[in-house]
Amino acid sequence: MHLTEQDIPAGVIERLPIYLGALIQLRQEGRTTVSSSRLGELTGVNPAQIRRDLTRFGSFGKRGVGYDIALLVDSIQRILGADHVHRIALVGAGNLGSAIAGYDGLRQHGFHVTAVFDNDPRKIGKRIGDVVVRHVDELPQVVRDQNIRIAVLAVPPEAAQQAADLVCKAGVRIILNYTPALVHVPEDVVIHNTDPVLELLHTLYYLSRAEGASKV
Amino acid sequence: MHLTEQDIPAGVIERLPIYLGALIQLRQEGRTTVSSSRLGELTGVNPAQIRRDLTRFGSFGKRGVGYDIALLVDSIQRILGADHVHRIALVGAGNLGSAIAGYDGLRQHGFHVTAVFDNDPRKIGKRIGDVVVRHVDELPQVVRDQNIRIAVLAVPPEAAQQAADLVCKAGVRIILNYTPALVHVPEDVVIHNTDPVLELLHTLYYLSRAEGASKV
DNA sequence: TAGATTGTTAATCGATTAACAATC
DNA sequence: TAGATTGTTAATCGATTAACAATC
Lengths: 216, 216
Hints:
DNA-binding, homodimer
């Protein structure tokens, strides 16, 4: 009846990276400790919730003092599995793919884009970040050789399902889908969709409320 | 004590765009009706929840038949405020900015990128999508002239706060922040952060659980 | 009519938050 | 010590879901 690892609510896991981001920013500013109330200000999360979230994994703070930033960064990284390097296969070497490959934040968190694929002959052989673009036909071999578990889809929406099938078959377990297409994957693969439109539509609702009250 | 517009839970508003995406995909396939159970399969949302979410805004279905896709698309768009055109200011004309400006899905949902800004002289005057990149100094004027309410930040993280301040001061009400920086904005501005790293970290947790069970 | 599926209620479940004793 | 802040409990709040009557 007590808490086992499986009992952690999804909401907690979603917040941990947010805490981590703020903690890293604080660390860069040279701070060594932070209180739950300050962390709450930075992240927009209720301080009581932060404390409760953290105690699920252990006791990281000192009463009267706050949390040791370095300790908490390490701990959260370990909890998430971000305490070692993860290789990423990037599918699609267009503008979006280039932006992702060139994004420093990934490397800072141990995510290394070690393979980039495209099916456009003009892009094959080009250098993106510090890897050379290969033909997508080579994907299965490369993903297996490098034991890659994470793929990022930055292809046109029509090609999304095909690309997903390909990477799943090659053994990828996590997919970040940057296309607007709804893609189906086997049960044991986690897919995360990111579509700027969905985010815009969602925030739009609140804008309409705040502004013209013409509609009911 | 009864439902007013303000009572709609945030979770419902987050799901509406997801339904919309699936509905549009179904419409493209030529379908005219869909049941809550089929929509649930496509979106991963519980059918009962879909029905309950929708009834908050009205009665859109026919018992025994399902939902009329065209009607539901229109209705959700109207609820979200996506039934008319919204102009977007894009700050940052690098790879990411180019990807966003060139993204067709935005236009399909009525989001028109009508202004792009950068501070790199080499980029000023270049064409991205169908607009010409201007110097960021022109931003306040252009945003006011075009009555722009939405800005997308695709700048280096160091420049994020500065860019946010600038667009807020010019009257923007919604910001999509594509930098990893935590940015502060006035209370009446909605900011939405999108960082691939946060999403990766979050899904990573489940990968660690599923694979090596070496850690407790 | 019989079958299907919505709209809606009522029960469950889980997350959030206030409050405070423990303790640095 | 006095002040601050965690860890934790207990209460609240809200979201999710099962179930089914209404009805197409």
